[in-house]
Design goal:
2 strands, two-stranded antiparallel sheet, about 110 residues
Length: about 110
């Protein structure tokens, strides 16, 4: 059995605004689908950053264009935050202190 068998993975999608989780190891179909979706979301975030730099550098950019950009950046940031939260929750525990690497200093027992 995998070390990840007891870990709930936050998936990179939601269902009617509610978080979705995957229980078990990371080698099944849903896990691979989630990995692929994360790759797509991170790639799209990178492309959006390039577009944002171009649009923000254009003095002719209109307020509706900038609002649209801000909305897409917010969506992308939500996706990237969810990916970071999911991956951070799956980081290994440090030996000796029983805390995960994603736990802020001074927190815990």
């Amino acid at each position: 059995m995998s070390d990840e068998a007891g870990v709930a993975r936050l998936l990179p999608w939601s269902n009617e605004g509610k978080s979705c989780y995957l229980l078990g190891g990371g080698s099944g179909y849903v896990s691979r689908l989630a990995d692929d979706m994360e790759r797509v979301q991170l790639g799209m975030a990178g492309e959006l950053l390039g577009h944002a730099a171009d649009l923000l550098g254009d003095p002719r950019a209109t307020p509706p264009q900038l609002r649209f950009l801000a909305a897409r950046l917010a969506e992308s940031l939500r996706d990237v935050h969810r990916i970071a939260e999911s991956r951070g929750a799956r980081l290994p525990v440090r030996e000796g202190d029983g805390k995960g690497l994603n736990e802020p200093p001074g927190m815990g027992s």
